[in-house]
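#lab-general

N.A. 3:47 PM
ok so I finally got the sequence cleaned up, no stray characters, all 146 residues accounted for. can someone with queue access submit it? mine expired

B.Y. 3:52 PM
send it over

N.A. 3:53 PM
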Amino acid sequence: MTAISPDSRNTLKTAFGVLAGFYAITFFLGALLHLGVRISVGGMVISEPTIIPATIVETLCGLALAAGAYAVLSNEMGSWTVIVVAHAFAASGVLLGITAIALGAGPGTDLNTIYHRVMLTALVAGLAVLFTPAGRAAFGCGDRNQ
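B.Y. 4:20 PM
back already:
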């Protein structure tokens, strides 16, 4: 197993939990936007076209990431597996959205394009880190306690 200090282990693990929670919130906001809800931020209003299938996918992605965040931050056994599945599921949802727009199944917006790119990058990068020896060690993979 990779040598990683207990402080670094806790910091990396906590970072994954916090980021997954943040990602979940962004997916839930996206789901609201695709329901037709307009969100005011400062002096501007953010809106997206109403797309019910996108609302469903974004809600499911948000739930998966929220479950991952909970598992990690509450130090549940098997939290590495839960956070990996959550990241993979959400990345698949983003790829589905990108594909649907590319095939003309729904309207695309600049906000949606940027969001898809940023989230896909973040989720894939997260998966890459989770599969490194340091990422696995941070979650105690191989330990009897995890």
